[in-house]
Automatic annotation (TrEMBL):
This is ABC-2 type transport system ATP-binding protein. InterPro entries: AAA+_ATPase, ABC_transporter-like_ATP-bd, ABC_transporter-like_CS, ABC_Transporter_VariousFunc, P-loop_NTPase. It holds the Pfam family ABC_tran. Keywords: ATP-binding, Nucleotide-binding, Transport. One of its GO terms (molecular function) is ATP hydrolysis activity. It comes from the Bacteria. Residues 5-234 form the ABC transporter domain.
Length: 301
């Protein structure tokens, strides 16, 4: 499978703050990636640099071997969709929605006008409305429609469903999957609503403290962890030799999240074994990374 984007040793600083700290990442063609991490982890900064919207202080970013930054040939293949604002630096954004679509038609060589019209009907969006009169959900819809209809081979969506209710979020992910099956492309989607999107992501990339902590196939990652619960003494015996990433106790009962190694024999014990959601795996791994970082940090005098 061809590599569509590659970054090597990317560092980005804002004043004294290092937002990205030596990021190495390779993304393949025609896959849907989930970029997950806490607020301030560096997700949006990384998306901006991958999409050529910002530059790296150190390191390189390339697409099919060509540099991304200030390269019009590469930029024609990229759509970076982020949440719209109802205002600009000069006051309310009074442009009508149809004006944004007119700009998109010019900017994206693969723009699909018929698909954009179908999406407008699906989301019940009035293109004659000014941007500053749109609700937060409608602003999200505008960004989503432009991203999907761009048909850009590399499409970035930064928190695309942040303003949508649960019904509209479901509709968005279904529309994305339906279109992806007919028109494959590389999607990189940043979101903090992880479980709703977990069945969409083929691979997940976990970002923490400006570093890539892991990049894994989503199903393989979920299959690697399990909850084991029961009496404390029985659970402790059943999980011997396994890495415990989280534990919760109540009285004589114990529930642990463990990393499986393929040699488990839980059937020999009176314990319950259940799957762990992607969101919980993210929480537990992030806590582990933070704990490890704090332990490695020098003590303050």
């Amino acid at each position: 499978m061809a590599t569509v984007l590659e970054c090597n040793g990317v560092i980005k600083r804002f004043g004294k703050t290092t937002a990205l700290n030596g990021v190495d990442l390779t993304l393949d063609e025609n896959k849907i990636y989930g970029l997950i991490g806490r607020n301030g982890a560096g997700k949006t900064t990384l998306l901006g640099i991958l999409a050529g919207q910002n530059f790296a202080d150190e390191g390189s970013v390339s697409s099919y071997g060509l540099p991304v930054w200030e390269n019009s040939e590469v930029m024609e293949k990229i759509c970076f969709s982020r949440e719209l604002s109802a205002s600009t630096a000069f006051g309310p954004d009074t442009r009508k929605v149809k004006e944004l679509f007119r700009i998109a038609r010019i900017f994206y060589p693969n723009w699909d006008e018929e698909y954009a019209k179908r999406l407008l009907v699906e989301f019940k969006l009035d293109i004659k409305k000014p941007i500053n009169k749109l609700s937060k959900g409608m602003l999200s819809m505008v960004s989503i429609i432009i991203a999907l209809a761009s048909r850009a081979p590399i499409t970035f969506l930064d928190e695309p469903v942040a303003g949508l209710d649960v019904m509209m979020r479901e509709k968005f992910y279904q529309l994305l999957l339906d279109d992806y099956m007919e028109n494959p492309r590389t999607y990189i989607i940043s979101t903090h609503i992880i479980d709703e999107a977990s069945n969409v992501f083929e691979e997940v990339v976990l970002v923490d403290a400006g570093r890539i902590m892991l990049k894994r196939n989503t199903e393989e990652l979920r299959a690697q962890y399990a909850y084991v619960s029961g009496r404390e003494d029985t659970v402790s015996e059943a999980i011997k030799g396994l890495q415990v990433v989280h534990r919760e106790g109540l009285g004589k009962s114990l529930t642990v999240c463990v990393r499986l190694n393929g040699n488990e024999q839980f059937e020999q014990y009176d314990v319950d074994v259940s799957p762990v959601s992607l969101q919980k795996i993210f929480v537990y791994l992030t806590e582990q990374y933070e704990s490890t970082a704090n332990a490695a940090a020098p003590a303050l005098a």
